[in-house]
Amino acid sequence: MIPAVMPTYARADVAFERGAGVYIWDTDGRRYLDFGAGVAVSALGHAHPHMVQALGEQGGKLWHCSNLYRVPGQEKLAGRLVGATFADTAFFTNSGVEAWECGAKLVRKYHSAKGQPQRWRIITAEGAFHGRTLAGISASGGEKLTKGFGPLVDGFDHVSWGNLNELRAAITEETAAICVEPIQGEGGIRPATLDYLRALRATADEFGILLYLDEIQTGYGRTGKLFAHEWAGITPDVMCVGKGIGGGFPLGACLATEAAAVGMTAGTHGSTYAGNPLAMAVGNAVLDVILSPGFLERVERIGRLLWQRVQPLAQRHPSVIAEVRGSGLMLGLKAVPPCGDVITALRAAGLLTVPASDNVIRLLPPLIIGEEHVEEAVAILDRVLSDQAAHA
């Protein structure tokens, strides 16, 4: 008999009831160090007091009013994002994949508005993850995501990750945009080189197409910059944001330049719940913290420390960890044994981590971790990897 909750997840047999900062407690009262952060969502940890206050205050005033009317919180958050990024405008959504879908529509609408409706296809990279909608899995590709859901949505051309020559060869008169993640998250924490990102910007300009970056997982300080593309010194035309933007509250955003958003006029896109006053209160509270003086510099410093402390673990335990990848507080440990076995052992030892493709263990801690939490995580990792190596 099918359970009441549709069985689409392979869930671990643990349930959580409360959290505080970088720790989370299960229903048996056991405490865990959370280096998964709800898959990079809980950017400010659990029950952050500023977020709790903002949500409580707004919850006592107004939850929903519809986008038929002005929403002051949207105007405030959009203005702040515009001020802090390349963008001139923002559309708020309930999730990352909705933000991605908005961007996919925007790039088609851009070319249509410019008199080139034949430009509608988007080049994406093998190993990408752009969400679970039908268009999202079509853009991502890969049998794991797409099997049984055909026919897929047309309009996406897949090229090898990091192969500029193949990407350039895939551009045709129908190409509208290039869409990539600066670091492939679900794909196994595979970073693009900074030169590759710069070449994508130059290629988009050369061919008169848009550069569309998916920073759902890499954004909002995860790599030590507000957005990962900043390391390359480039700007996209369009960018989708999610996960950390709401710190655990369902929220996403599609950001774009004025030129790219030329076709997004009244009636071209919308959402019932998106950008509601509750979400906007929390989104503004998250940005208060992330844009506070010294916050991102601290994330960058702690990210370097985590890398410096984790790298030697791989060298000491080569039969368990083959490689360390990533940037900032977005690291991947490519495992030798099945990564799920190592993740289970880490959870039993009190450390939560997240799996990814290519047999990778993701470390995605809240951005508020300190040196003491790095040392605590490394100590647990060392014990578990030692035990795994002993039984290899």
N→C terminal distance: 38 Å
Strand composition percent: 15-25%
CATH class of the largest domain: Alpha Beta
Structural class: alpha/beta
Number of DSSP helices? 12
Give the SSE order as H and E letters: EEEHHHEHEHHEHEEEHEEEHHEEHEEEH
Number of strands: 17
Rg for CA atoms: 21 Å
Strand order of the largest sheet: 4-12-11-10-7-5-6
The CATH H-level superfamily of the largest domain is Type I PLP-dependent aspartate aminotransferase-like (Major domain)
Could you give a short account of the major beta sheet?
7 strands, mixed
Domains counted in the coordinates: how many? 2
The whole-number mean of residue pLDDT values reads: 97
Q: Tell me the helix content.
A: 25-40%
